[in-house]
Amino acid sequence: MSVQASLFAAFFRIGIFGFGGGPSMIPLVHQEVVKRHAWMDDDAFADVLAIGNTLPGPIATKMAGYIGYRVGGVFGAINAVVAVIVPVIFAMIALLGLYSRYGDQRWVQGMGLGVVPVVMVMMAQLTFDFFQKSRAGLGVVATLIMGVAAGGLIYGLGVHPGLIIGAILIAALLRPEKPRNAPEGGRT
After folding, report:
1. What is the DSSP string of 85-105?
2. What is the per-residue pLDDT across 114-143, written as a single tens digit (0 to 9) for each?
3. Where does residue 72 rank: exposed (0-12), middle (13-18), buried (19+ CB within 10 A)?
4. Of residues 38, 28, 30, the one with CA closest to residue 6
5. SS3 track for 18-69
6. 53 to each of 5, 107, 151, how far by Cα in Å?
7. In the chain, which residues have pLDDT < 50?
8. Residue 78 neighbours by CB under 8 Å, 6+ apart
């Protein structure tokens, strides 16, 4: 299968199965991009996710655009974005039509509630994966302190997550580099 066809198929699957909006699509994007196709590793994916969260707009289309560009150039970006939004557009039209007609039916309400636990498990798995990555890079204590601080700022004070991520990115950029040890024998 060509790269463009693989991109389209991967992001089309994400668009079809990404119930619950952008955040619920992130584990699906991770599965397709990192695990299935190996277009990027976990570190690169985490960077794309962090930067995507700082920018305005839906995360699924931002990630599709960047990953598509990285894998297949400009056409890859267009291809991936179209693939992820087309199923959503058709599903919205169809489901909103059905919902307006049958929304008061018990089985329709049950369908919506039935998807919630599945999305919750997918998000928990992604959270665990990111915790493991952060723990390996920063250590358990720093990871927990930063997690609690971010949670307090987001949920306690109402600070937008993008502002927190942006501040961390700026702090990382401004942090002075550690001097490298001189090679053995005193040569530089």
Report:
1. HHHHHHHHHHHHHHHHHHTTS
2. 878 887 887 888 788 888 888 888 889 988
3. buried
4. 38
5. CCCCHHHHHHHHHHHHHHHCCCCCHHHHHHHHHHHHHCCCCHHHHHHHHHHH
6. 27, 35, 15
7. 188
8. 68
